[in-house]
Amino acid sequence: xxxxxxxxxxxxxxxxxxxxxxxxxxxxxxxxxxxxxxxxxxxxxxxxxxxxxxxxxxxxxxxxxxxxxxxxxxxxxxxxxxxxxxxxxxxxxxxxxxxxxxxxxxxxxxxxxxxxxxxxxxxxxxxxxxxxxxxxxxxxxxxxxxxxxxxxxxxxxxxxxxxxxxxxxxxxxxxxxxxxxxxxxxxxxxxxxxxxxxxxxxxxxxxxxxxxxxxxxxxxxxxxxxxxxxxxxxxxxxxxxxxxxxxxxxxxxxxx
Length: 256
Fold this sequence. Notes:
It is a single chain. By secondary structure, this protein is α/β, with parallel strands linked by helices. It has one domain (2-255): Spore Coat Polysaccharide Biosynthesis Protein SpsA, Chain A. 40% of the residues lie in helices and 20% in strands. The chain contains 8 helices and 11 strands. The protein has helices spanning 2-19, 53-62, 79-88, 104-115, 135-148, 190-203, 211-215, 236-255; strands at residues 24-30, 47-48, 51-52, 69-74, 94-99, 122-125, 150-155, 163-164, 170-172, 181-189, 222-225. Strands 5-4-1-6-10-7-11 form a 7-stranded mixed beta sheet, with helices on both faces. A two-stranded antiparallel ribbon has the order 2-3. A hairpin with a 5-residue loop joins strand 8 and strand 9. The chain is globular and about 50 Å long.
């Protein structure tokens, strides 16, 4: 805990100097269909606290003083709806809404190509259905990416993790102290993430997050301890949990 407090103190003291003259971009892929959620409505457009989930995610970066430009990638069927939300909520940092691809990785690539026009030094990639990323973590992540070139937010698993073979029997119990559950946003030097995506495209490789593409080109990725509140809403149960988190956050704001 002491080391984490020292890290955050250093971030506060050094960030203003390090961020000076740096352009920070954000790509938010919002093209998922959300099949695990059930129903016909894409999960990013479901209501959370009376607002679409995706607007919470965008709004966190809109409010960040460090972020300059945002690009969204949308499913073709929902491009106009997403543009309408950008206008309705006055997200002035959203520069473009581009067409998403077949897979999340394809959508991120389309977003990266679009944000290239704005010459970012660092780009953050964030899931549209993670509505609770806060400004402190955004700032810490950008700082880490500036220092280490690549950084992600992650949390330690609370449960024991088991690995199994195909027949469903336990094969291995990894050391929990060495495990992290990756979240987003994930942040990278822009030229590096472009190189990583180009190699993945050449190799026909699809990863489960963006950091794994950078790992494949030999880059060490820094882990910043995140928050258990920064959940990804993919099931009806997640949405119930999210309503509770939002209620708690609003109560804390009211009391402060």
